[in-house]
Amino acid sequence: MAGTSADMSAVPDTAPESGSSPEEQPTVFSVRNLWKVFGPRAERVPEDAALAGLGAAELRERTGCTAAVRDVSFDVRKGEVFVVMGLSGSGKSTLVRCLTRLIEPTSGTLEMDGEDVRAMDRGTLRELRRRRAAMVFQHFGLLPHRTVLDNVAYGLEIQGMGRAERRERAAEMVAKVGLAGLEKRRPGQLSGGQQQRVGLARALAVDPEVLLFDEPFSALDPLIRRDMQEEVVRLHREEGRTMVFITHDLAEALRIGDRIALMRDGRIVQLGTPEEIVGSPADDYVRDFVRDVPREQVLTVRRAMRPAGDGEAGEGPALTPDTLISDAIEAVARSGGPARVVDGGRCLGIVDSACLLNVVARIAQPHQETAGEVAA
């Protein structure tokens, strides 16, 4: 999970399988060349290169169709928080609904754990939605006549679990999301943030392999929204569960995402870590999107360090390669001298006031490469 400071608090990465890097994790969702086109004879659009290349307005004019998702490919790795973000109408919610075929894709391949989701029959698909991939929506969808405990247990009831067992499991999840003591209340007696916690507990209760969040916090006020972001961060840190998170809020994406797919007009315009997106925007659209991000709270010392000189590898405070620029500035100022960037006992480089000032100066010009960047 992305480490940030100040209003984006530092969070240690979660390793789902000890000793393996995120790139080595198994693939949960594999998506290739996925299209979702709404309108008459939608299937002709991805099949016809001339139509597929049209802009949104011209495509509607010529075919009456709207391409909500255009030729999208990506993998979601086990244990990561994969964020899909974009402005309204970018196709992000449609894309995530395609993952469990709440919306039927028009074309492309879609696999979960190597299984062809598009080939699943109704029964298999129902089991996927009930047990393997649970959705958490913006609108909580709680049953008003049921208590908190019974709302959380509802998915287990649908699965056929006995009453005593499901209520015991539901009580565990209520406590996990910080609602212990509120089990007997009904949704109308809860705040918006508490209602969203009930929705989260309900999704967790079925112990899904993947949690799919569709802008779950956008209706909440800023303070409650921040609390819920912290709750997601905490749960991920504790459980290492795979999450796919949809948002239009860049700060939210940077706060919780391990990787971010930024969408525009149905396409992914850049996919990368928060640092890659903020530090190396793929085009002018992404550059404008991240223009106001406090980059020193996202970029790490990997982009600022220089090679160690004679005798420097054994001196000064040690920082990890994922230390934020803002934290490195504080460490160097506190020590009064250079700091070492150390990984696995090996000195990768040095950061000092000069190279930190250099990268901070270039932060104001994010289109330029950082001269002090050194490959680890």
Task: Itemize the secondary structure elements and their pairings.
Blueprint: E1 27-38, H1 44-47, H2 49-52, H3 56-63, E2 66-77, E3 81-85, H4 92-99, E4 107-112, E5 115-116, H5 122-132, E6 133-137, H6 148-152, H7 154-159, H8 163-176, H9 192-205, E7 210-214, H10 222-239, E8 242-247, H11 250-256, E9 259-264, E10 267-272, H12 274-279, H13 284-289, E11 318-319, H14 325-335, E12 339-343, E13 346-351, H15 353-363
Helix pairs in contact: 8-9, 9-10
Please describe what this structure looks like.
- The chain has 376 residues and is α/β, with parallel strands linked by helices.
- It has two domains: 22-289, P-loop containing nucleotide triphosphate hydrolases (Rossmann fold, 3-Layer(aba) Sandwich), CATH 3.40.50.300; 299-363, CBS domain Like (Alpha-Beta Complex), CATH 3.90.1280.20.
- The protein has 15 helices and 13 strands.
- The protein has helices spanning 44-47, 49-52, 56-63, 92-99, 122-132, 148-152, 154-159, 163-176, 192-205, 222-239, 250-256, 274-279, 284-289, 325-335, 353-363, and strands spanning 27-38, 66-77, 81-85, 107-112, 115-116, 133-137, 210-214, 242-247, 259-264, 267-272, 318-319, 339-343, 346-351.
- It has a six-stranded mixed sheet, with helices on both faces.
- Helix 14 links the parallel strand 11 and strand 12 (339-343).
- Helix 8 crosses helix 9 (192-205) and helix 9 runs parallel beside helix 10.
- The model is unreliable at 2-19 and 366-376 (pLDDT under 50).
